[in-house]
């Protein structure tokens, strides 16, 4: 059975999966759907060879029109830049692409290729599979510098952020750990505008991480964030664009990004750019197969697994986003964590297993890696809001043991394309990565699992049980607190070398969820603008209609700028109000909007916006639309805006609502 799976960064906008329905064979779907390669235009095929020194051309047996690469050597220009050959296990992967950059393989072309792969003794049986593409989703931002600064202050407070002044003289003793962001940005991004990314998601993650691991841009910890391309396609029909990247990636793309991150870090050892440790941030994932969440028989999936095993053998600490629900009003449609967050249930390889894979297995006693206890291959990170409630787009049965604040992030002194206020498990993952990198910069002698253990053990217990299988016995959900983790890791050490005098512990959410100053600024800013208030404008409540998308549905990129930068609800038993500010870029483009509310039992209800309310949202002269809500039981809310995009047609974007 060959079934497609998609890769997408994990923020708060809606996405539509472009997957073939599970249950098919090599050429079609048992339920009558399209074969997966017809739902994945330009999709390459990944196969696993029996022997690492095998040839991907299979003795010149490939059908006409197909070309091949050794995946971890030739399928990305950045891999070709690596000085050393891939290790043994990674040399087994072959990539097959049809024709030139503008060619699309037909049903017959794919059937012919699979027939050759299935018949070849050089290919490991039943591993060849289509490497389907996924899309990038975006999230919320802010348009006011005052609001941005207030949001940044609230976010920093709620994650236990530490300033450079608080770290003090200990900054001079840091040995900065490396951080690799495997995402939308080229490794060559920098001064050359040719490498400016199409999508800023990777830059946004980097800004979040830098704000935690090197507060206030302190000179002592100013080691560059390393970018590695995993989203190289502008559209589902395009060939990879490795300079500027795009909105789409695939499982093989992310596998190559992980390998590039580790191989590049290894090559820097012994040079002036050497760093003692490596953290990898992976704010991306794909929908698991319903009957087999960790399907390692498929070569594209296994390539990610092997790349992560390689990273683990080299001592990298990998944090992976647990994933979001594409349809918050239909919580049952997307359950459990996305892949590769599911790999938290798989053990990292032992020293001997690493050696058998050709991944090394030796370690420097001053930089230990291995332990006799089972440790996860990756650490999944879930998201909570400032009140420790699950995010509005959280997945049923998808909360891992380690969570972090994932709502209303903000970095830098002012808002910008790479410093947006975002919501989603991408944000949570970046918080964990930033905290781990800061801690490891002070304690590089700790094993990777020990660093993760400090984050977990000294986080705030939310009182809920983890819903995701892990291999190290963590049962309670705990929220990362940067200061508490570092304080514990430095306990008993000289504070001039490791800040052991921080005197902080993780704590429950503040009564105002740390958002008091933000709402004070919000009230001040919005009071100066024009507003229209409605006592009605919503349809009668209705239950959501939840049905899986058809197999041939293809997703499109989301708008990068959010429709509603600030959607807030003031909860009051006698006077509940919804405040909406619409970005001016969308004035006149909003076709419809649906408010989805979840009550205290988690049951969703839809409320459609009616004509006058839509007209107000489309009116450029109205800075704030206020709706009086006759809904008393609201715990979570989102708004789905359908807009008429001049280049892509109708698009739907989900805005998360913040509660006062």
CATH topology of the largest domain: Rossmann fold
CATH class of the largest domain: Alpha Beta
Number of domains: 3
Number of strands: 25
Radius of gyration, in Å, reads: 24 Å
CATH hierarchy: architecture of the largest domain: 3-Layer(aba) Sandwich
Q: Per the principal axes of the C-alpha atoms, what is the gross shape?
A: globular
Record the strand order, biggest sheet: 8-7-10-12-13-14-16-15
Main beta-sheet annotation: 8 strands, mixed
InterPro entries: Peptidase_S8/S53_dom, Peptidase_S8/S53_dom_sf
Signal peptide: 1-20
Keywords: Signal
Domain Peptidase S8/S53: 181-455
Explained architecture:
- InterPro entries: Peptidase_S8/S53_dom (IPR000209), Peptidase_S8/S53_dom_sf (IPR036852).
- With 660 residues, this protein is α/β, with parallel strands linked by helices.
- Helix 6 (201-213) links the parallel strand 7 (178-183) and strand 8.
- 55% of the residues are buried.
- It has helices spanning 71-74, 77-80, 107-119, 145-159, 164-167, 201-213, 251-268, 299-313, 351-357, 425-442, 448-457, 482-489, 516-527, 611-618, and strands spanning 8-9, 44-48, 66-70, 93-98, 129-131, 133-134, 178-183, 226-229, 249-250, 278-282, 284-285, 317-321, 379-384, 402-405, 460-465, 476-479, 531-534, 566-570, 576-581, 590-598, 604-608, 624-629, 636-645, 649-656, 658-659.
- The protein has 14 helices and 25 strands.
- An 8-stranded mixed sheet has the order 8-7-10-12-13-14-16-15, with helices on both faces.
- It folds into 3 domains: 8-134; 162-489, Peptidase S8/S53 domain (Rossmann fold), CATH 3.40.50.200; 529-659, Immunoglobulin-like (Sandwich).
- The protein starts with 7 loop residues before the first strand and ends with a strand.
- Helices cover 23% and strands 18% of the residues.
């Amino acid at each position: 059975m060959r079934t497609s799976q998609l890769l997408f960064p994990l923020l708060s906008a809606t996405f539509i999966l472009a997957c073939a329905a599970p249950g098919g064979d090599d050429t079609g779907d048992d339920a009558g759907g399209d074969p997966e390669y017809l739902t994945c235009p330009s999709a390459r095929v990944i196969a696993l060879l029996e022997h690492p020194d095998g040839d991907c051309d299979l003795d010149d047996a490939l059908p006409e029109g197909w070309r091949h690469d050794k995946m971890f050597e030739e399928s990305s220009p950045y891999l070709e830049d690596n000085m050393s050959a891939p290790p043994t296990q990674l040399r087994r992967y072959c990539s097959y692409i049809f024709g030139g950059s503008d060619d699309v393989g037909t049903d017959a072309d794919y059937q012919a290729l699979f027939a050759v792969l299935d018949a070849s003794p050089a290919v490991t049986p039943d591993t060849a599979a289509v490497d389907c593409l996924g899309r990038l989703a975006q999230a919320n931002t802010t348009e006011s510098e005052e609001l941005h600064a207030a949001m940044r202050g609230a976010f920093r407070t709620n994650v236990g952020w530490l300033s450079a002044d608080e770290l003090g003289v200990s900054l001079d003793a840091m040995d900065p750990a490396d951080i690799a962001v495997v995402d939308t940005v080229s490794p060559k991004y920098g001064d050359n505008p040719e490498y400016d990314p199409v999508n800023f998601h990777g830059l946004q993650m980097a800004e979040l991480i830098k704000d935690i691991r090197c507060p206030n841009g302190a000179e002592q910890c100013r080691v560059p964030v390393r970018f590695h391309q995993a989203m190289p396609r502008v559209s589902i029909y395009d060939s990879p664009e490795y300079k500027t990247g795009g909105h789409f990636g695939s499982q093989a793309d992310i596998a190559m990004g992980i390998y590039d991150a580790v191989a590049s870090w290894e090559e820097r050892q012994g040079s002036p750019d050497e760093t003692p440790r490596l953290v990898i941030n992976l704010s991306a994932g794909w929908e698991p197969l319903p009957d087999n969440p960790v399907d390692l028989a498929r070569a594209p999936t296994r390539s990610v697994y092997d790349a992560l095993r390689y990273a683990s053998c080299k001592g990298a600490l990998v944090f992976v986003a647990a994933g979001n629900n594409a349809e918050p009003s239909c919580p049952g449609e997307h359950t459990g964590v996305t892949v590769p967050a599911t790999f938290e249930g798989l053990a990292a390889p032992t020293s001997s297993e690493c050696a058998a894979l050709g991944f090394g297995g030796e370690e420097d006693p001053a930089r230990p890696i291995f332990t006799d206890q089972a440790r996860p291959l990756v650490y999944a990170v879930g998201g909570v809001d400032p009140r420790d409630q699950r995010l509005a787009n959280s997945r049923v049965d998808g909360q891992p043991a380690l969570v972090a604040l994932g709502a209303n992030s903000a970095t830098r002194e002012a808002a910008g394309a790479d410093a947006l206020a975002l919501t989603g498990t991408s944000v949570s993952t970046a918080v964990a990565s930033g905290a781990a990198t800061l801690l490891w910069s002070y304690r590089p002698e700790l094993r990777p699992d020990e660093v993760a253990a400090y984050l977990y053990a000294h986080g705030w217990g939310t009182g809920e049980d983890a819903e995701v299988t892990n291999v190290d016995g963590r049962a309670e959900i705990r929220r990362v607190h940067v200061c508490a983790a570092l304080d514990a890791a430095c306990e008993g050490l000289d504070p001039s070398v490791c800040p052991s005098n921080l005197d902080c512990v993780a704590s429950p959410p503040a009564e105002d969820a740390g958002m008091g100053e933000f709402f004070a600024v919000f009230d001040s800013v919005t009071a100066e603008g024009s507003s229209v208030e409605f006592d009605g404008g919503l349809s009668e409540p209705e239950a959501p209609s939840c049905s899986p998308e058809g197999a041939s549905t293809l997703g499109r990129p989301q708008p990068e700028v959010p429709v509603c930068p600030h959607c807030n609800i003031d909860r009051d038993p006698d006077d509940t109000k919804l405040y909406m500010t619409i970005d001016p870029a969308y004035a006149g483009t909003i076709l419809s909007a649906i408010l989805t509310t979840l009550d205290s039992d988690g049951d969703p209800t839809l409320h459609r916006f009616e004509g006058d309310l839509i007209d107000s949202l489309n009116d450029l002269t109205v800075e704030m639309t206020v709706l009086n809500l006759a809904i008393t039981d609201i715990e979570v809310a989102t708004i789905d805006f359908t807009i008429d995009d001049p280049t892509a047609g109708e698009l739907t974007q989900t805005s998360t609502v913040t509660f006062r």
